[in-house]
Amino acid sequence: MKIAAITEDGATISQHFGRAPYYVVVTTEDGEVVAKETRDKPGHNSFAPHQPHSAHEEGHGFGAQAQSRHASMAEAIADCQVLIAGGMGWGAYENLKSRGIEIIVTDIKTIDEAVKLYLEGKLLNLRGRLH
User: Fold this and answer.
1) Which domains are seen in the chain, by residue range?
2) 87, 15 in Cβ contact below 8 A?
């Protein structure tokens, strides 16, 4: 199983999916971490021109341009089954979910702790952090 986490520094979980510049992808086998790698992730600053959220007529993250950006962000983790984030918009959440990726939104700070809790079945999904 591969678990991705969004990050800015390779160790902590970013609070906003769209702004994070990297994924840390953790490969597990039989409940144990066997590999870890960092992958580049497109983010809001990668796409131009970017409209402010208030300009989205279809709602935050649900317009055609937003869906295209979400697809671009998802390409790097197409081989992952889980994504851990500190927060994200509903449009990104629904887009990733439609690709068969389980999204866990958490307030846990470090990637290592979140992955450990996920593997133990103890990582809470705080969907109230979606916007």
Assistant:
1) 2-129 (3.30.420.130)
2) yes
